[in-house]
Structure formats: C-alpha cells, structure tokens
Design goal:
Layout lengths: L24 E4 L8 E7 L5 E7 L12 E6 L4 H11 L6 E5 L7 H5 L5 E4 L10 H9 L4 E6 L2 E3 L3 H11 L3 E11 L5 E3 L6 H5 L12 E2 L7 E5 H7 L11 H11 L3 E13 L6 H11 L3 H20 L2 H21 L3 H13 L13 H8 L2 H20 L5 H9 L4
Parallel strand pairs: 4-5, 4-7, 5-6, 9-13
Antiparallel strand pairs: 1-2, 2-3, 7-12, 8-13, 9-10, 9-12, 11-13
Helix pairs in contact: 9-10, 9-11, 10-11
Amino acid sequence: MNENDVNPCSDRRTVEMAEPCQPDAVLVAHDDDNIGASVQHRAAPDGGCAPVRRYSGGTEARGAPVSISAVILAHRRVRELGLVLDRLAELPVSEILVAGDGTRRAATPVASHGDVARLIEPQPGVDLGVAGRNIAARQATGELLLMLDDDSYPLPGSVETMVEAFRRRPRLGIVGGLVREVDSDGRIVSETEPGTFDWFLRAGAIEGMPHHGIPAIFFPEGACMIRREAFLEVGGFFEPYYLTLSELDLATRMLARGWDVRYLPDAGFNHIKHEPPNSDELIQDQRQLGLSSNHLKLQLRIRNQVWYFWMRFPVMLAVRRIPAYLAFDLLECVYRGVPTAWLAGVRAAWRERGRVRHARAPLSRDLVRRAELNRGRMHVRLLAATVQARWRTWRPAPSPDLAGRTARGPEL
C-alpha cells in the first residue's frame, strides 16, 4: 500500500463515505496533491473494502473516472522488474498484471508488491511470448491497458497525459509514448537518434510536433496505452508471431476496424539498458532457444514480416513489398554478423505458413496508405544512416599535416 491509495480505515485522509462500503462504490479522496484521483472500493471476500485506484483526469476531469490496468511482459529481468513495480506503485493504476515467461523468476518481485500486483503464468516452463499480454488483458478490469516491458516504466505525468488523449478522442485505440533509453543510473543513452522509436514515428522530423501527437503506423509495445474495448474487439496481439512485429500488426488491425493509432511524445517512458547476462545465464538461454538471442530476434522478425504483408496487404502489393523488405533485412543480418538468420526466417515463413493460412484479411487500398504512411522511406533513410555511421567508424583519421591543410583550405 502506498500513499496514493486511500484507506477508509486510516485517518491520514478524509473520504466522503456516509454508508458502509458497497461493491463498486466510488470514493473521492480529499488530497490537494493528487487532484482527480479517486479510489473505487470493492467488497472484499472477507467483508472489508479492497481499494482499486482510478484516475479521473486531473483538474480537468470530465465524466466517469477511468480505471487503468498495467500489463507487464516479463523476461528474466528480475532486478529491472522490481524497479518497474516500484515506479508503478507511485502512479494511478488500478492493478498490475505481470505475464511471466514460464521460469517463475518474476514471482519474487511480484510477491513483494502483492497488494496490487499478481503474476500470470498459466503454463510453467513455457514462455508464451506476446500471448501472455492477451491473457493478462482478458483478465484485466481496467478500461485502459498500460502496456510495459519488465524494463520500462512511464515518467511522472505520462499516464495522465495519455488518459486525457483517450478522453479527447473516443475512437482512439492506441497511443504510444516517447521511449528514452537510459542506463542503470538513469542517464539518457538515446532518445531521438536514427533508429529510435521517436525517429521512426516522427519520420525523422524533430520540430513542429503537435501537442496532441500525430498519426502512427505502429507503437512501442512496452511504452503505450491501449483501450481495452478496442484491444479485445480486434483479438489482441496476433499470437503466432510470438515476438517482434506484433505491434505493427495490431496497429494495422486497429485501423481496419476504425480505431485510431497515434504517437504522443509528451508521454515519456524510460527503457533501461540492462547489463548483458552473465555467461551461465547466456548459455542456459541459448540452450533453451537453440540459437543466440540476436539470431532469434532477426529470424522472427523476417518470418513475421513476410506473414504480415501476406495477411494484411492485397496480393499484388504484398508481392512487391515482400522482396523489398527481405532485401533490407538481408543487409541488416549481414551488418549484424548473423546472415544465417535471414535464411532461417525465410524458411520458417514458408515452412510454418499453415499457422497463418486462415488469418488473411487484406486492407483496402485506402487503408494501406494509412497503414504504411512513410515506413518504406524511413527504412531507406535508416539504411543510409547506418552506412554513414559505419563509414565514419572505418575511415582512418587524417594525418596532422592533412588536417592542417584542410583547416587552411587548399594550397594553390
């Protein structure tokens, strides 16, 4: 229990409650430091009151309060998960659902926050990937889902900013936030550089961002808020993907159903760049996966991207897009030193095609334009930026004499 929870049995704050606690009764706390926060007390099994925090939008609150469920996808990062849970304890969320990876490693930090957090791990020993988010979302009680990873958390004020965005736009399905990569000491490592979420979502433009954000074709899966109604309507994340590209596919299906997807850089999130696992953990993970983590991520992305174009695009467009993106992926695999991941991904897309055969639902041409925006152009720009960065790394430093000539201009 933290200070933002209102306990009707405590004398620290007064609560408007003339009658005994009733199920789903909304009690508003008198707290000048947390204007707009309210607590819904539900009848607990023992006859007492179980507090559920709700957020009503701050000083400009309108309408009924909004409940928020945080959904965290855990993956072996115990220390970071504990930090994320600590941060969430200070924010207006109703509940925290942690989708485990089958290892039970998340049990300890979740148990230490047992008043609001619970672990969802339906199949011990099995990592469900993105399917874990779907299970948690179905069990959630909040109207809005705050989607996080076990190493990402919202900055102060970000949750409130996102809630207001949903209030202003009744057909807003997903809003993504600004992702800042930070080290273990909280220092910003990257934020707007080429290749970051912000760079992609802004299309490389830094200035002139509207306060209400901009239309987006995807979102950071571990730094976003989703309207639960819309999420369940479209079927949640596409589970055969397992990991990677699932956010692009979900955004596309949201757009197909008439829900909007936007990027709101005013809502900031920190993503912790954790230390690489020690040798024993790395060997264990590689034995479980059968290959390196980098190899697996690229293989899954290549497979999933082929599936994505085939399922969501008209045939003739898919036939053009697939080889173009495969060419980009081949260059990236070579650049990262895992060219075999490309071939493995292509083979997997064909070999496992039966898993997506009945999921084809192509967009209309008008919706394709909205679902793509400038994604292809941004990949070309990213490739150019990568080549330039590598060239600067390879290029030898000029000799002192040459440097002097350059500074003075050519000698005629």
